[in-house]
Amino acid sequence: xxxxxxxxxxxxxxxxxxxxxxxxxxxxxxxxxxxxxxxxxxxxxxxxxxxxxxxxxxxxxxxxxxxxxxxxxxxxxxxxxxxxxxxxxxxxxxxxxxxxxxxxxxxxxxxxxxxxxxxxxxxxxxxxxxxxxxxxxxxxxxxxxxxxxxxxxxxxxxxxxxxxxxxxxxxxxxxxxxxxxxxxxxxxxxxxxxxxxxxxxxxxxxxxxxxxxxxxxxxxxxxxxxxxxxxxxxxxxxxxxxxxxxxxxxxxxxxxxxxxxxxxxxxxxxxxxxxxxxxxxxxxxxxxxxxxxxxxxxxxxxxxxxxxxxxxxxxxxxxxxxxxxxxxxxxxxxxxxxxxxxxxxxxxxxxxxxxxxxxxxxxxxxxxxxxxxxxxxxxxxxxxxxxxxxxxxxxxxxxxxxxxxxxxxxxxxxxxxxxxxxxxxxxxxxxxxxxxxxxxxxxxxxxxxxxxxxxxxxxxxxxxxxxxxxxxxxx
Length: 475
Ligand code: H79
Prior knowledge:
Immunoglobulin-like; 13 helices
């Protein structure tokens, strides 16, 4: 078994948490449910169209900011003393058992008066982030953009009246960041015809006004709200990526209506796999034409290199929406670096979420953590941006490996410092011509014999977060 430091840590932390839960409310540990599962058959291949689209920017940009922001944000995971038991604060309508009518009051009260798109974008840009994906409509059904399809939106339904999607998309593009929207195409707790993902969402609680035995009609919901709102997004904003989620009852035919709609208005706009596959599904070859890349499971970090290009939807904390009530935790700096690096070396992008606060300001702890990644990227960015997945068969014990797009530079990411003052890289068939520590620019001494590269290391890690060695290969 390969050593997987993140999950080893998670298991230890889980044991610790349960043992001490009585005495001290320790933060919940990373959930083993998020452990990576390999759900790909090795012969899958993205369509040439998708590959071309991905190569335009996505595969080079590597690092995105995911943003969960909405009417749930000011509640921070609790409503009238209820609801804090759910891991995700954006689920408050369900966790607190609110009817749609009751939640309308929550939505109407949403007033993020201190929201400033330029301030957000500056934080992201300074952190090395290249694209942004924000919730334009989550499962609660409340849109953060002006919509003619439904007045259940921030412009028509609140005192705030401003269009968050418009302001943020413009601010991103002004600063050269790509802009994407999350859109919950299947679940919509405001719409009785939309499907409910699990037993926790009950039609009788959300819509008590409906007769018992009400027969839902998914296609009615799609035609009335979900598809026309996706069209509005595509027509009215400059969207580079659309992020679908939880595709309950999404057949190929239904999903195709969405992908056709996106392609009709914005041929270059990227589409994620959740248009049809949930994060836990096995990817099916017959669905590949519907999307461009694969979203692995929520907060899943791939630890094995993958045949299709992926993106990992991670979060700085255990929730996606801002949460202060009930169990929740933030990742450490070291964990976040590991999670980013493993994702990139497996062949994917790292989409790191933050949940802004109800007043419209970013979460200060998220800002701090993004800043740490940004600082690390300032020195080590060339080992991340525009690189490709680990070319070796195995993931090394001490960390991971990425390679430049041209295939002429290896980046060795040392996250577990090897003992014995030496790092050894077997199956190294290419000849190394130079080696330097990216962290401090110093030359690294190395030797190479019968396909084993040996690099001399100082006793202690130069950068405890991740020391990168750049190895130049002979042409
Ligand atoms: O938007 C974020 C999540 O709200 C969304 N996907 C990410 C990107 C998502 N929707 N559903 N799910 C993820 C999976 C379902 C999780 C749940 Fe639960 C199971 C919600 C309620 C039961 C675990 C237990 C989380 C809350 C309680």
